[in-house]
Specification:
By secondary structure, the chain is α/β, with parallel strands linked by helices. It folds into two domains: 123 residues, Trna Endonuclease, Chain: A, domain 1 (3-Layer(aba) Sandwich); 96 residues. The protein contains eight helices and six strands. It has a six-stranded mixed β-sheet, sandwiched between helices. Helix 3 links the parallel strand 4 and strand 5. Helix 2 runs parallel beside helix 3 and helix 7 packs antiparallel against helix 8. The relative contact order is 0.09. Keywords: Endonuclease, Hydrolase, Membrane, Nuclease, Plasmid, Transmembrane, Transmembrane helix.
Length: 238
């Protein structure tokens, strides 16, 4: 809230106040979206979105649903709601299910948290790194996780083993095949050379199939672990 505003007397004042409070919570890039069609978002940050209501009527579930829908598919953005009045029980229950922080502000702009998520934000603001992080910032976690995950590393180890064995066998067969094909001592050796060619092709196909299967299993295990970690983090936030 700008220094000129001593009391909240309009919706614009309320939105500026919410943006200021969000910056104090660690969302350093929080800003008012301004007049016009905002799609349900009054204050925007790269890591959070908020809706602000300036009225005496109690806020219900539909208003919270509007904010949730406005976030669209960006699940990394936190949800915050500010109102000058209270919330219905249905709204509070809905906020818990979608992990939305609920606040009430007074005419001076001071906030009162209305659920656990809001109390946590006021007690422990998000870090500067978290509030300013962009989408690629999640990549180091993915790399670290992939290097420590037992399932993916097992798949990679299996692939390396198959690759080494396959290379040795293929080289030996290739030397023998070329010798027998271009300098056969008998018709029997020529037939054996053709048979070796068939075996080499079969081994190559088998190697490709097995390697792809191991890689697919590794990716599946990684996705399962990533989802488990995400659910564990969401549950811990509650």
């Amino acid at each position: 809230m700008s220094s000129e505003i001593e009391y909240i007397t309009s919706a614009e004042d309320a939105e500026e106040n919410a943006a200021e409070k969000m910056r104090a919570m660690g969302f350093t890039d929080a800003r008012v979206t301004g007049p016009g069609a905002d799609g349900g978002v009054d204050v925007w940050s790269r890591t959070a979105v908020a809706q602000v209501k300036w009225r005496s009527a109690q806020t219900g579930r539909p208003e919270l649903q509007q904010l949730y829908g406005a976030r669209a598919g960006d699940r990394d953005q936190r949800l915050l709601f500010f109102t000058a009045s209270g919330y219905s029980q249905a709204a509070i229950e809905y906020a818990k299910s979608v992990k939305m922080a609920l606040f009430i502000y007074d005419p001076l702009g001071e906030l009162t948290p209305c659920n656990k998520r809001a109390r946590k934000l006021l007690a422990a603001p998000v870090s500067t790194d978290e509030s300013s992080a962009s989408a690629p910032a999640g990549e180091p976690f993915e790399v670290t996780f992939a290097s420590k995950s037992s399932a993916p590393s097992g798949g990679g180890g299996g692939g390396g083993c198959f690759e080494t064995i396959g290379s040795v066998i293929a080289l030996s067969l290739a030397v023998k095949f070329l010798t027998m094909l271009f300098s056969p001592e008998s018709q029997t050796e020529f037939i054996i050379a053709i048979a070796l060619l068939v075996v080499m092709v079969a081994l190559g196909i088998t190697y490709v199939i097995v390697r792809r299967r191991l890689m697919a299993q590794g990716r599946e295990a990684m996705e399962q672990r990533r989802e488990a970690l995400r659910l564990e983090k969401e549950n811990s936030d509650d």
